[in-house]
Design goal:
The protein is an alpha/beta fold. The protein folds into two domains: 7-123, Acyl-CoA thioester hydrolase/BAAT N-terminal domain (Immunoglobulin-like, Sandwich); 130-426, Alpha/Beta hydrolase fold, catalytic domain (Rossmann fold, 3-Layer(aba) Sandwich). It has helices spanning 81-84, 166-174, 200-211, 227-238, 287-299, 306-312, 316-322, 346-359, 405-426; strands at residues 7-9, 14-16, 24-26, 33-41, 47-55, 87-88, 103-111, 114-123, 130-133, 139-144, 151-157, 178-183, 197-198, 215-225, 244-248, 271-273, 276-277, 333-338, 366-371. An eight-stranded mixed beta sheet has the order 9-10-12-11-14-15-18-19, sandwiched between helices.
């Protein structure tokens, strides 16, 4: 028996990008095979698509939160499967998106009973949120809600992939935080490489943020991802203005900086303070790793850099010198990592920070999250996680993030919820 006219139900044509999309198809015949499809575009314009095959229930409906996909880009019951399982239809290996503009998505349901479609916008800026360029010698974006009493602020720090995290800043602003997302290398007026970057730049960023009328200077957090997670712990330990720290896939140990050319063998500190380089642990490449890196530049195969960091950590004296004095952080700390991180051992490196806080009787709460089957990429939820790699750099391959697409998606969602709860409780 046919159950009516096929249609797709979503909560509305627009919803916040960090909320799961509740998709439901209706009007099909009970037991009918129905394919759901989703399409969106990365910042480059490249198309990403997903699909899932279902049997319509007795009510003629398909609900991914209730029904198991038997084919397509994911299988099983997963309400967000159509989002994280998207794959590139074009030849683009990594989903890149940093803008706070809405992300447009099209949905389609098709079976022998007919076809239905719907359009959806995933919104990063809630009503009233504004994003403007940073000034005062800083490069990047600042997002906040206009008017009202001063509220908490967040300084966002990217990793070695230099980008303005405007998307994350806008989402935080949508939750009530004034967020500054500076770029700190690889652009005009900034250090050209991930080497010898002055920590004073972040001190100025904190001063700029504290001076904003939207910000309560006594409620400022710093949040970083990847090498930005290392940096967030450093900044928190050096500047008393920081009242809480979030480190995602970060490190309690400073590692050497990275030259712009991956074939450049220079080794130096990534950070300076007062003009002096900070101690660091040197990554240790092996001939086999170097060969993989060279071949990856030709084949495009992503590179797991994990062994180089593990080898570097065998120098116990260097690790001791380069361990960040996290006990100097004047507030709570959240450390999150993935147990299958193929970029660097973020679980072990975050444990070093957590252990040092415990050993020094840190008087503030410390939250430690480790996602056993997740990789390196912890960030905004409900985005494609199928590529599992970074965008290739100049002259070199992309990085293998590790983890499985489904577990990475789960970790992103849980980590983001944990970040919002941590900031709400502690700011």
């Amino acid at each position: 028996m046919h159950s009516g006219t096929p249609g797709i139900e979503v909560p509305g044509s627009r919803q916040m990008a960090d909320e799961p999309v509740a998709i439901r198809a209706t009007g099909f015949s009970p037991g009918e095979n129905v394919t759901l499809r989703a399409r969106t575009n990365a910042e480059s314009g490249a198309s990403w698509e997903s699909s899932a095959v279902f049997k319509a229930g007795p009510d003629g409906a398909i609900d991914p939160a209730r029904d198991a996909s038997t084919g397509g880009t994911y299988k099983g019951v997963d309400p967000t499967g159509l989002l994280w399982s998207m794959r590139p239809a074009d030849k683009e290996p990594h989903f890149v998106r940093s803008t706070s503009d809405p992300q447009k998505m099209t949905l389609e349901a098709s079976g022998h009973s007919g076809k239905a479609g719907a359009d959806l916008e995933l919104v990063f800026r809630a009503d009233g949120v504004q994003c403007t360029p940073l000034d005062g010698g800083l490069q990047g974006a600042f997002c906040s809600r206009p008017g009202g009493a001063p509220g908490p602020g967040v300084l966002l720090l990217h990793g070695t992939i230099a980008r303005v995290m405007e998307d994350t800043a806008a989402l935080l602003a949508s939750h009530g935080y004034a967020a500054a997302a500076p770029r700190y290398y690889g652009a005009d007026g900034l250090p050209p490489e991930y080497m010898r970057i002055p920590l004073e730049y972040f001190g100025r960023a904190l001063e700029w943020l504290a001076a904003r009328p939207e910000v309560d200077a006594q409620r400022i957090a710093v949040m970083g991802v990847s090498r930005g997670g290392e940096l967030s712990l450093l900044v928190g330990s050096r500047f008393p203005a920081v009242k809480a720290v979030v480190s995602l896939a970060g490190s309690g140990v400073v590692f050497n900086g990275l030259p712009a050319n991956p074939r450049d063998n220079r080794v130096d500190s990534p950070w300076t303070f007062g003009g002096e380089p900070l101690p660091y642990v040197e990554r240790k490449d092996t001939p086999g790793f170097t060969l993989k890196a060279v071949m990856g530049g030709f084949t495009g195969k992503p590179l797991a850099t994990l062994p180089t960091y593990v080898n570097g950590m065998k120098d116990a004296a260097a690790v001791d010198r380069a361990t960040i004095e996290v006990e100097r952080i004047g507030g709570p700390v959240l450390l999150a990592s993935g147990g299958m991180d193929n970029v660097w051992p973020s679980s072990a490196l975050s444990d070093i920070a957590a252990s040092r806080l415990l050993a020094n009787n840190h008087p503030y709460p410390v939250e430690r999250l480790d996602f056993e089957s997740a990789g390196h990429s912890l960030g905004i939820p409900y985005r494609p996680t199928t590529s599992g790699r970074s965008k290739p750099g100049p002259g070199g391959p992309g990085l293998d993030f590790g983890g499985t697409p489904q577990e990475n998606a789960r970790a992103n969602a849980e980590a983001w919820r944990a970040v919002l709860e941590f900031l709400e409780v502690n700011l």
